[in-house]
Amino acid sequence: MSSTKKPQAVDLTSEEASALKERIDNKSLTDEDYKTFSGLISFSLWLQQQLSLAKISIRRLKSVFNIKTEKKSLQELTSLPKQRIFSKKA
Questions:
Q1: Who's near 43: CB < 8 A, 6+ residues apart?
Q2: What pLDDT is attached to residue 88?
Q3: Which whole number is the average pLDDT over 47-73?
Q4: Alpha-carbon gap, residue 39 to 6, rounded angstroms
Q5: Residue 80 above 80 pLDDT?
C-alpha cells in the first residue's frame, strides 16, 4: 500500500456498526461485511503509517475523519458572561 494515497473512507452509522457486531457474534458475516473489514484494515494500516512517519497534521487528520470545528470569533469569546471561579469566604 502506498503511504501517500489515502484509502477510501468506510462510513458506518452506529446502527450499522451494531448490526455488524451482531453478525460477527453470530458468525454470519456477509460478502459486504468482508469488504467493510478490508477497507477498515487498509485505513488502519495507512493511518498507522502516516502517524509513525509524522506525515499527517492535525488538520489533515480532522479532514480524514470529516471532523468540522467551529471557530469562535474574538468578539464572541470576550462577550461571554464572566463566571467567578473562587468564591469569597464569609
A1: 7, 9, 10
A2: 46
A3: 72
A4: 11
A5: no
